[in-house]
Amino acid sequence: MMLLDGKIASQAVKESLKTTVHQLLMDGKPAPHLAAILVGTNGASETYVASKVKNCEEIGFRSSLIRMEESIEEALLLDKIYELNNDAAIDGILVQLPLPKHISEAKVIEAINPAKDVDGFHPISVGKLVQGLETFIPATPYGIMLMLEHFNIETKGKHAVVIGRSNIVGRPMSILLSSNLKHGNCTVTLCHSHTPNLKEICLQGDIIIAALGRPEFVKADMVKEGAVVIDVGITRVEDPTAKKGFRIKGDVAFDEVSTKASAITPVPGGVGLMTIAGLLKNTLQAYGLKAEGLGQKA
Ligand code: NAP
Fold first, then answer.
1. Which of the listed residues 6, 41, 67, 96 has the most CB atoms within 10 Å of its CB?
2. Annotated active-site residue in 52, 116, 249, 281
3. If you measure from the C-alpha of residue 213 to the centroid of ligand 1, how many angstroms do you get, rounded to a whole number?
4. Relative orientation angle of helices 271-291 and 43-59, to the nearest 10 degrees
């Protein structure tokens, strides 16, 4: 069994980005600049944003963290986005999700200039992804593709079973794996909460991508011998014996599934780290678009 170690694969991406930034600075150019907006004080969101900012710093990107009150009016959040859209010093913009209930996520996502949409959630980015055009790929599926590439996992002609159809993970993942890409060309089955016979479908999967947010949902009896298993899930499960009062669990019962899988990602230390790698690569791409004069809102 091969452990698909996110630390190793993400470090390789980050080293390459670090070299690029070093070269930019040597040429007298500014480093790419990511702006992250965090609304409220949700514990998990705080952790994710802090990690994104820290990783930017590690590789020499600039980053700005903009905090807004949980009660912020939608209009004020949109104004901040328009301001960042028109700020030539900002290359990429992300708004950490989820947002408070009184704010429309769809409106917020659509407000971001598509040329700075480093999360790849804007309808224009998604449309381009579907058509196989160059675009920003949502960071988590992008990170998974980078991981498959790093560990040389063969995907061509394989049957990939994706569990979960969210806009940020499952659906774009199914599009990428079914695309005519080096690490694509799979036959994909996209499953969700209304899929009957999920176990039988999973048993046919050469590659399983579990992205449903149900701790240890995928058990050994759902996985065929030799399958590649990618665990996207991150759920905080209460545990009074843990220092923080909770433990992070993936969607796969790692101990039992790893005895059957040919390759598997750990949680933590797997896809989460690759998501950051995907985001950093998107930020560099946004920087490149700006250099081509496409980074400002028309
Ligand atoms: P989501 O928006 O809640 O979507 C969950 C999907 O799973 C839905 O499509 C849902 O089906 C499906 N589902 C739920 N229960 C199911 C069941 N019993 N059988 C089959 N399908 C089921 O979640 P998400 O945002 O995609 O995130 C999924 C997990 O990944 C979460 O744990 C999240 O924290 C984690 N995540 C991790 C990263 C990372 O970097 N590692 C990034 C993003 C998300 P319906 O559509 O029918 O409701």
1. 6
2. 52
3. 4
4. 60
Tell how far the Cα of 274 is from the centroid of ligand 1, in angstroms. 17
Q: Nearest CA to 161 among 199, 127, 126?
A: 199
Residue 155: pLDDT over 60: yes
| Residue 53: other Cβ atoms inside 10 A | 17
The span from the CA of 163 to the CA of 96, in Å, is 23
pTM score: 0.96
pLDDT tens string 107-120? 999 999 999 999 99
Integer Cα distance of 296 and 233 in angstroms = 35
Contact 271, 140 (CB under 8 A): yes
pLDDT in tens, 234-271: 999 999 999 999 999 999 999 999 999 999 999 999 99
Domains and CATH numbers, the chain: 32-112 (3.40.50.10860), 139-272 (3.40.50.720)
- Residue 79 structure tokens: 């104004």
Q: Please name the residue that has the structure tokens 């394989």.
A: 158
